[in-house]
Amino acid sequence: MTEARRTYLNSDKLPFPFCPGCGHSLILKALDQALVQLALPPEEIIIVTDIGCTGLSDKYFSTNAFHGLHGRSITYATGLKLAKPEKKVIVLIGDGGCGIGGHHLINAARRNLDLTVLVFNNFNYGMTGGEHSVTTPPGTYTSTTGFGQIERPMDICGTAAVNGGSYIARTTSFDKTLPDLIARAIVHSGFSLLDIWELCTSYFAVNNAFGKKAISETLASLHFDTGILVDRAQPSYLQAYREAVESKALASRRKGIPLTPHFTASLQQPLTVMLAGAAGEKIISAASAFSRGGVLSGLFSEQRNDYPVTVKTGHSLAEIVLSPEKLLYASGDRPNFLLILFEEGLTKAAPLLSRLTPDQTIFINASLECPPTQASVRGLHFERAGTWSRRSSAYAIMALGELLRAEAIYPIEAFLEALQLRKRYAAENADALKASEGILSKKR
User: Fold this and answer.
1) Distance between CA 175 and CA 293 in Å, rounded?
2) Average confidence (pLDDT) over 51-57
3) Are residues 175 and 281 in the same domain?
């Protein structure tokens, strides 16, 4: 609990800078009364504003504040709330900001983010000369609607409500219950919004002889109800997220594949293997098993995949880095072993071949012609695998199996165990690995 405060306004900054008769002052005083009513610790409040006359407001409060770009205040508030969920985050935004950042408004509402949004709705861009906004009433005049506004105004409350906002109200800056409405919005768990109609006395009001009575008449003509329009209890985004994580945490752990090292690898330095194959031929899944085999052997592993946006067409590349020490990133500029299995992979890897050196090795499908390269080249004769030669989806497993037999990077038994972690394909993968023995040509 905190000591009761008589005001949250910063007396050193007052008075407000707004034009005489501007509704902003009334709304800010109502906000102050709401905060006094709730007796919240000032340090637990964050007021977020953007560009516009409304954006002048935050510095008049003795609370945390954030001021950003036009139409983006809801975005900033979202980040602040997710980072500091214990804070009360209050957004002060104008009708101009709602137009410029309308998609932010919609997404905050549909997520039911625990934010309080106060819309200072005076039907025009008051700071820049009275241009029309998304809420300018039909038939009214602004500096950009000299013949009268012909567009229907945005229903801010309807937009927020239909997209999931859980506390929505429409009122005016003259409403004596405004402090209570704001207080209810602040303590509400979920997305709350008050569309507060007010007067811009320097532009909109004088150009349209628009006063309190006109506000009431316009509300009626547009069939915009006032008061609390939506007040429903539903999980806020943060609450729903926590519940989802907690409920699925155990299930996620159960579905995970435990990789406890119990084989021993003799690898003394990082080693990179690149598979260059075709989409749909299980290149990436075989590479993943190869990575897991490394982990089962006490190695650190990283994998990077490259494939087009299309499905089962084009190239499929997988790069695996194994290391006895922790890895920070995977880089395929100089793979120790390049396994080229299909024409699509050869085409994709071709630019790399000219940069390879004699200390690097290429294993290539013997049915493909290897371009000129300084690297050592060995052929993969899949026809020696008997009936498995017709199973192109097993080529990656067979090639990796022969790599382990030839180079003893880690025990081939670890690769076999990793392949059998996927129970559905365990027997098939084991048979493919066994069939691959002897398909690799001798060094040359």
Assistant:
1) 70
2) 93
3) no
12 CB-near residues (< 8 Å, 6+ apart): none
166 and 310, same domain (yes or no): no
425 and 312, same domain (yes or no): yes
Domain coverage including residue 37: 23-240
Domain match, 301 and 344 both: yes
Q: How far apart are CA 255 and CA 176, in angstroms?
A: 57
What is the maximum span of the chain, computed from C-alpha positions, in angstroms? 95
65-69, 135-139, 197-201, 333-337: lowest mean pLDDT where? Answer: 333-337
Per-residue model confidence as pLDDT tens digits over 233-258: 999 999 998 888 877 765 655 566 78
Whole-number CA gyration radius for the chain: 33
Instruction: Give the residues across from 306 on adjacent strands.
Output: 317
Q: What is the pLDDT of residues 413-439, one digit of tens each?
A: 999 999 999 888 999 999 999 999 999
Give the Cα separation of 200 and 352 in Å (integer): 66
**349 and 200 belong to one structural domain:** no
**Tally of domains within the chain:** 2
Question: Is-contact 339 322, C-beta < 8 A?
Answer: no
